[in-house]
Structure formats: structure tokens, C-alpha cells
Amino acid sequence: MTMTPKLLVLSAPSGAGKSTICNLLLERNPDFRLSISATTRPPRGNERNAVEYFFLSKDEFFAKVERNEFLEYAEVHGHYYGTLKSSVEALLQQGFTVLFDIDVIGALNIKKQYPEAMLIFIRPPSQEELIHRLKNRKTENEAQIQKRLERLPMEYENARYFDHQVVNDDLLSTVERVEQLIRGQ
Question: Which CATH number describes the domain made up of 7-182?
Fold first, then answer.
């Protein structure tokens, strides 16, 4: 039997269902904890600081960059996102599997520092379905949706460096498939 990886990284294009999959994995696996990213973007809807993200000003964010406090960071859709070393190390020391919900570049940077990390790329069933999902979540305007879609070629190109790719055409089946990959089945 294969041990569960201690670092599990999920990446996907915006709207592919990555955050929903992560939430279900957390519900179903009590030994998992989410790595909370820091970001310079403003909160959406009911998002809370230190729950969904650590919301930082650009000055706060770049002060942490200067102090080398991030495992990885990148600009995505006009805002900065990063993974704080201290929070990941604390979760690992407590014996949890750390689940990352980050973009493809961040995922590849995690893999450079933690070669044992498992990277799973979540694909939408089609670009049409992805556009439909982005429009239905009603969190971005048309220009923001277009900006997200412009990243697709880069995201798909980098997905080939991931350990696994899973198409999210049915949420529960996708979560079960990810769990099978995690458990080495």
C-alpha cells in the first residue's frame, strides 16, 4: 500500500472546479489541511481573512517576498498570490497532508522545492463548459473572464509536467478519482 503524499497540489484553469474538489477532499479526509495562500486581490463575497486567503496589501506582500517568507509566489490575473513557508511547515510538523489549491506555475515551483509533492491538474470537460461555469458563478465580468481564458494555452502546456491529469466532468467521480490517485490505486 502506498502512503498518502504529504504535499498534494491541485491546479486547474479558473472555473474547472479545483476549489470545490479541494473542499470535498478536505471534508472526506480528516488528515488533510488546506494551505491558505496569501493574495493582494480583494476578498470576494463572504471570503474571510486567514480562512480562504491571507489578504495583504501589495506593500505587505512584497515585504514578505523581501524576507523570503514564500515557498512560491506569482502574479495571476493582475494580483499576486503566494504560499507562506511557515504555514506549510507548521502543518507538516503536525502530521497533516497539506493540500494546495494554486495555479500551475506555483505548483511547479512547489515541486522544485518538494520533489515528493504530488501534482494533479484538473481539466474541464471542454472550453465551452469552462466558459459556461465561469459565467454562471457570476464573480467576474466579461473582461475578467477573457483574461482567465487567455491563460489556457500556458496552463495546458504546463499541465504536462504534472504527475496526473483528471477531467472534471462529474464532480463526485472526479473527487473519487483524485482520491484513488492519492492512495496509489
Answer: 3.40.50.300
